[in-house]
Amino acid sequence: MKKLVGILIMLVVMLLGISVGTYMLIDQKAVRDHVTQAFHEQTGLDLKMETASFQVFPWPSFHAGQVVLTRSGCTPFVQARSVHADISLLALLHREVSFQDFTVENAQITLHRTHDGVCSSWLPFAADDKPAARKMGDAPSAATSHAHWKVSFDALHVTSAQLSWRDDHSRKGEERSGGFAIASLDLQGMHSVSPWIDLHAYHGETPFNFKGRMGSFHRVLSASTPQGEPWGFSLGLTFGKEGQQDQMVMDGSFTDPHRLKGLRLSMQGHWADLRDIEQLFPHIGVPAVQSVGGMVDVRERDESELPAGGFLERLAALPGKLYPVQMHVQLGSVDFPQGTLGIEAPLHLRQLQMDADASLAPLTIHGDADWGRFSWEVQAQLGTLEKSVAAWKQPDQPTVPLEATLQGRDRNLMTLLSHREHKTVAEQDGVQFHAQGTLGRQASQLSFDGQADMLQAPELPGIEQGLSGTIVHGLSLNGQLSAGAFSPQGLKQLDVHDLHFDSREVGGDGRFSITRPVATQPASIDAHLHLTHADGDALLPAAVQGEGEEASSPSAQRSQDHSDRLQAVRAFLDTHHILLDLTADQLAFYGMDYRDAHITLALGDRRLLVDPLKANVGGVALSAKVEVDNTTHPMTVRVQATPWMMPSTQFFHFIGQSPVFEGPVQLDGALEARGDTQEALLSSLEGAMGLSVVKGQIHTSVLAPLAGPAAAFLKLGNGTMGLRCAAVRVNLHQGQGVLEALGAQTKHFLVKGHGQVKLDDGALSLQLLPHVSLAGNEMSMPVRVAGTITAPQITSLRTEGGQNQLDIGQDTETADLCQEVISKARDGHDGLPIPALSGEHSRTSDILKALGIGGKP
Length: 857
What we know:
This protein has 17 helices and 44 strands. By secondary structure, it is an alpha+beta fold. Among the domains are: 492-617, no CATH class; 632-857, no CATH class. The longest helix has 24 residues, at 2-25. The N and C termini lie far apart (144 Å). The model is unreliable at 16-25, 126-147, 413-422, 542-560 and 840-857 (pLDDT under 50).
């Protein structure tokens, strides 16, 4: 036993002696210099070690501290606190330092591309026009025969490292950066034809793993190595915590991995939110896509040389050369915010399925789309996958056949299935549209048709609020659509021709063109439409109700900012270009029935011209002209009516006053004004205009103050009463209006007079003589109206003794007031017939009716 212990002690001493002796005999500095020189020759990288030691016994190994790996003039690639590795003994006999398990601890790995593009390749790639980098273990070439040592790696292990990158040479000129923490990185079999990689890392608190096999590293790093045989790889990526992981598997091959040529790639997996990848690459700018799953096979079609430069430049250019040859992809949701691709309303795609079994097989698309308040089911089929991708990626490629069907989700079903409030859901039932034709980046041609039991029009920018949201019933339409070049900002040209449409509310045909050369500017519109019928009252119920309520509220009128409205009109004139030629066989609008209407509106170059503006109402030919010129300073406005009729609701809304009467208002005359503000326009108003209405209704609240003591006998109440006529002729000069032939008549009441009005502040100075007829007797008393239009003050005229001039007696009025005032207001033009005067009735009956007994007076 003692002998055995002695022998063991002697062996230990001998081994220790040999180890120490060999360590003392090894020239550490010389070996370190040979290693760093060989490393530089083979990789182009500079290796610096603050401390380094090599030993042979008990086994060959290497230890170094404060290691820096860099390229001359660049940010250090790797900075490690310590590295250690085993060394192959047999390789040492061939002057090769072959590291078996090269372990790096507490390292900082930095990938940095400078503004001038230098330092964009950190790995030891050999350029095609330079001597190829030797494989770690190959014999030295003549050019590098002075390097007595070679360096190679069999396995690499990295623990507790930080990886970061910064790109100062991005195409947008902005600095981009990112990074993550490496828990462990293992590269096994680096000498073999199929190395293995296993990466465990964290970004923040989110873990991810990347592992798999790939072809020989030497074929990637060396340009001189013969290529042609497939260089395969199979890699898997998981991102996220256990149970919530995104997964992707990539299988493929390169024919030339050094130049990234001949790629064949198959990807499959599931990604809960595609934007999760921005945690690793914050500037990649992926779209907002939820729940991505399926598989895609891609091939490199164009195997021409990639751009010269480093590995990153080639890698960045590679996606543009790839084409899918098979795909089965599901997208849970895709969001396009307002303004994307020129779309005014946000677009939300749901449950989108895209399938193509081969490159020459059709590409089918199915899913749901929400656009604003509208929900559709979309089905589309494009000619082939190959042609579809080529038509999108290559603008000079021909178009691809397209057949698509859009089916609207009915309002009741959609309300049940949607979490949105009912008011945000469009009104639609039985909506279906079909389109067929060709689609391309430069031009598209489609024929379309469709029908709907009920359809609500979308809210369109620049369109009056009343038109947006219009509902039609029993709609059918068809036509042809031509689209110009498509860009990320949207379509620049859209033409619709041979359009035919019909519904309960509107029908007709026509064509229109929309041009938008600059995405930031409003589109130019050229439309030519013929309407067989149009029921404006049914199309615009919200507008009728909204404007009526607004006009009936004086406070609402006072709260309107007329200056802002005028400035908005001027801005509209400055930016929009519209040509509208509209004819209508029948047009119902606010209770009026226009026939054979013709409207031509030309807006452009800061000018608006509406001419002709023609129609026929009740057998009366109407004609008007409106001109606004914003090229002059100040702006010029001209209006001419010979004559024109418009609904009273619109008339009072236009002048910003509460309604006084209801019925068709006839305008006869011409006005001109100049100014950049509403005050300036009113103060410069020149011309004459006659206003008249026959067979209408007048608000009794207007008559009561004028009737004076007789108001109690008329039982006016708070509603309206029949109006036989009302008319006035206004002569305007520098904002001062002289009212002539002012008069109005109901069955038992009439008023006539004259006066003046100032348009800037609405000041009134009127002298009126109201007459009240009661059963053949007449009651009259002259009054003066002062104050303003919005707050009139009515007082009775008194005698010199201060007595009211109330006159009661028999009706002696013989002249027809309506014939007199209407004739002067119309200025010789035709108009609707004036209702005949009522005949004589029983005086007792009239008295009772005047007192509110037995019917209305």
